[in-house]
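Hello again, I could really use a second opinion on something today. I've been puzzling over a protein and I'd love to understand its fold better. I'm sending you its amino acid sequence along with the backbone structure tokens. It would help a lot if you went through both lines with me. I've dropped the whole record in just underneath, so have a look.
***
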Amino acid sequence: MAAEATTETGRVQIVEVGPRDGLQNEDAVLSVAEKIELIDRAVAAGLRRIEAVSFVDPRRVPQMAGAEEVMAGVRREPGVSYIGLVLNRRGLDRALAAEVDEVNVAVPATDEFSRRNQGRTVEEMLADCAGIAKAAHEAGTPLSVTVSTAFGCPFEGETPPERVVDIARRAADMGAVEIALADTIGVGVPRQVTDLVARVRAVAGTARLRCHFHNTRNTGYANALAAHESGVTVLDSSIGGFGGCPFAPAATGNIATEDLLYLLHRSGVHTGVNERDVAMAGIWLGSRLDKEPPAMLGKAGGFPR
């Protein structure tokens, strides 16, 4: 499998979310050692930003237990940044003590999803986020904000783009260095992506834009390409295509890192990641989860061979 296309038309940075979003909805719970091996495989393949852990209550999300142990066991290589998801100040304190390189806060765009997923309204989450942002800044740790259910909510239906824009503007005002638009349940389409990216870019200031897509309705890869063509240079994906949200009905996997790499590389986009190695990691992860990876590249192989 070719790792890169020969004619470069742009660059995209991949944020590997498999160790966090990829595992949180699976029945199998990986050991700390297996989580570390997954992360090590991602780094060996060339991925340089890894959402490695989530500092949430393991009683609610048992798949995310052992975050501190995982961070203590990963190899700290130059140029590799490990991200920890936090939802409150306690989570931030844990993340800072574990010496993550970045913290990410998820702020849903709809109240019902926010209450079910995080036990807070959107306004309450934004207030919490402001406190987290201040403390992260004082600690010298970069903060990103993910606007979840940005393209649609399983409980409230269509998400008004104005609501997403308002959250993004407030995140930028808090000092977020990156704002991610997340299609948590995989309902977005390319035209919606293009429109929302343009709206958010107008209020994001100096914050980078990132996009996070699920392939629930087979639009995730088209959406990723639309985001790239709209100027987004950072995309989330998950090794093997595993993932989903335990608090969102029928929210199936993230777009697969290996399949996204094939799409980007064949389109002339540079990523610096070896798609063959990622595909092998996806097969390995499937064996640990006792589940066939949704990703296609490990089955079909690359082209030309």
Q: What stands out?
A: The chain is about 40% helix and 15% strand. The longest strand covers residues 102-108.
